[in-house]
Amino acid sequence: MTTNDTAQVREVGLRDGLQMVRTILTPAQKLAWCARMVAAGCTEIEVTSFVPPQVVPQFADAGEVARGALAIPGLHAAALVPNLKGAQRAFEAGLPKVHYVLSASNAHNLKNVRRTTAESAEDFARIVAARDESGRHVVLGAGVATAFGCTIAGEVDEGTVLALVETLLEAGAEEITIADTVGYAHPGQVRALMRKVRALAGEVPLACHFHDTRGLGLANVIAALDAGVRCFDASLGGLGGCPFAPNATGNINTEDTVFLLESEGLHTGIDLDALREMRETLAAWLPGEPFTGAIARAGLPRTFAPRPRAALS
Amino acid sequence: MTTNDTAQVREVGLRDGLQMVRTILTPAQKLAWCARMVAAGCTEIEVTSFVPPQVVPQFADAGEVARGALAIPGLHAAALVPNLKGAQRAFEAGLPKVHYVLSASNAHNLKNVRRTTAESAEDFARIVAARDESGRHVVLGAGVATAFGCTIAGEVDEGTVLALVETLLEAGAEEITIADTVGYAHPGQVRALMRKVRALAGEVPLACHFHDTRGLGLANVIAALDAGVRCFDASLGGLGGCPFAPNATGNINTEDTVFLLESEGLHTGIDLDALREMRETLAAWLPGEPFTGAIARAGLPRTFAPRPRAALS
Questions:
Q1: Cβ(B211)–Cβ(B190) under 8 Å?
Q2: Helix, strand or coil for residue A135?
Q3: Which CATH architecture has domain B8-298?
Q4: pLDDT band at B168 (very low <50, low <70, confident <90, very high)
Q5: Average pLDDT, chain A
Q6: CB atoms within 10 A of CB A4
Q7: Between A254-263 and A272-285, two packed helices, what is the crossing angle to 10 degrees?
Q8: Where are the domains of chain A?
């Protein structure tokens, strides 16, 4: 890797992280979190999820948070949407980027959004059409969940994932995220699949979304880097472990991911000290929630030399 | 990797793991641990350390444990020695393999064994001579500690490590272990250094010894695999975190390392269920000690298919 290489860490703590948290943060807290991430150099943030409030009360304020996020200078705000209705709410809020997600595992998709994977793929085409009709400039990313295996269905065929990626690209996906939703992926599998996805996607940007459930989250980042991936979802403090199911460890930890990428000579533009301070604030806001992270526990090596931060554009 | 690839996981919990533990295990407990590791398929074990008992009381029974280990069928017992005197005690106990270790960081070596790295390298030559004079068949391995950085000295020059490896090989080392004693290594560094060590060592077997202090232990295993390393030290339950310094996370976890290697298609011959049972026994023997491990917490993926165990030879 050259010293000019960069990598992107996208904060998904406000969405994936808060999904199962007991304390409901206020919109003001969520927006303060966003602003401090941007100040730390982490400008790509999934600020909320447009799911029905009765399903996840934590996101009842999705519209308010999205509109507030748009007022934070330097923040590239996105939201997750599970269906056309959610996408329309995200468009109305004025968000410049929307992430749609479906599961490669049909069983998981049925459980998650009560429709088949094929139906969800058709829904994405309708979302693209709705965006086009609206005349709005919204970037539409598409994610394939349970791409490395499923707790319900077990093995997920590589061919199924690749066919879905093709379908989503044909429908107009402007970015592809491949997600290890349940923490089943291992490095060899990640390297092999991401090389094939890379070949399919051509110039369309790729991202990976890993969970650290079985300790392989950062090893999987290394494998994805080998396959040319340079964008990773992560959650501050590893937030997203379910307090009612201690086995469901959450997303890879933002601080540790930044530490790994910077150690590897990849410029993230993110300041680890600022992340650590925000992590402490967040821990105070969310008493009793499990936080993870090796850097928070052990500190940085004396030998660690992050790339100098670029000026925020 | 082909399906015939194998990898070795060496248990160092009885040595590195017990070093800072408050409860002193009895020789009978240590030998029961060894026997159950062998029954689980983990036959390479560092059973003790021949350090002065006043320095580490846990190893006052080194001779007794070494002799007991020799009576366990299928166990390839080794011991760590910090100097000639320790090596002579290990030879007298009849061990077929002895690991000598010195630090690439002179400051660390001085603190650890009160002599310079150069003096320790000369000591290794004396150990080889003593082995030769004894007429015993003892395999002598040599390890380079703090090879990826040092908490006292900071950066450790790659050239220093490579020169030490050459010195140790010339002196007669029959195996080389490269150790990230303080948990500073990152994957790019591991891949680069291990490729160079590999080129120097030729047919001499190589091993890596990683600590998971900053969450990169298993990512470093992946990097070492890329460089052709197929032997890794690990500690059952990640034992080796210091109870008085919660930041000093210990060795990579044996169960998680086996899980990673088997997931990558590398045959270890080790049964994870049996490891998990022994881990529980060990936790009961060592109340209050910190144990780590993602597999112990989250269980194996439904999709995990270990290689069938080979019959024990």
A1: no
A2: coil
A3: Alpha-Beta Barrel (3.20)
A4: very high
A5: 93
A6: 9
A7: 170
A8: 8-298
Please give the pLDDT value at position B180.
96
pTM of the model: 0.94
- For residue A183, the chain B residue with the least C-alpha distance is B301
Selected for mutation to probe chain B from A105, A302, A304 (highest B CB count within 10 Å) is A302
DSSP chain B: --TT-B-EEEE-IIIIIGGG-SS---HHHHHHHHHHHHHTT--EEEEEE---TTT-GGGTTHHHHHHHHHTSTT-EEEEEESSHHHHHHHHHHT-SEEEEEEESSHHHHHHHHSS-HHHHHHHHHHHHHHHHHHT---EEEEEEETTT-BTTTB---HHHHHHHHHHHHHHT-SEEEEEETTS---HHHHHHHHHHHHHHHTTS-EEEEEB-TTS-HHHHHHHHHHTT--EEEEBGGG---BTTBTT---BPBHHHHHHHHHHTT-B----HHHHHHHHHHHHHHSTT-----HHHHH---TT--PPPPPPP-
Residue B2 above 80 pLDDT? no
Catalytic residue among A42, A208, A231, A242: A242
Cβ–Cβ of B187/A213 closer than 8 Å?
no
**A243-294 residue pLDDT tens:** 444 555 789 999 999 999 999 999 999 999 999 999 999 999 999 898 999 9
Q: What is the 3-state secondary structure (H, E, C) of A193-245?
A: HHHHHHHHHCCCCEEEEEECCCCCHHHHHHHHHHCCCCEEEEEHHHCCCECCE
Q: What is the pLDDT of residue A313?
A: 37
What separation, in Å, do the N-terminal and C-terminal C-alpha atoms of chain A show?
24
Q: Could you report the per-residue pLDDT of A162-213, keeping only the tens digit for each?
A: 999 999 999 999 999 999 999 999 999 999 999 999 999 999 999 999 999 9
B264 chain-A contacts, CB cut-off 8 A: 186-188
Of B268, B262, B259, B238, which Cα lies nearest the Cα of B250? B238
CA distance B186 to chain A (A): 6
- Find the length of chain A: 313
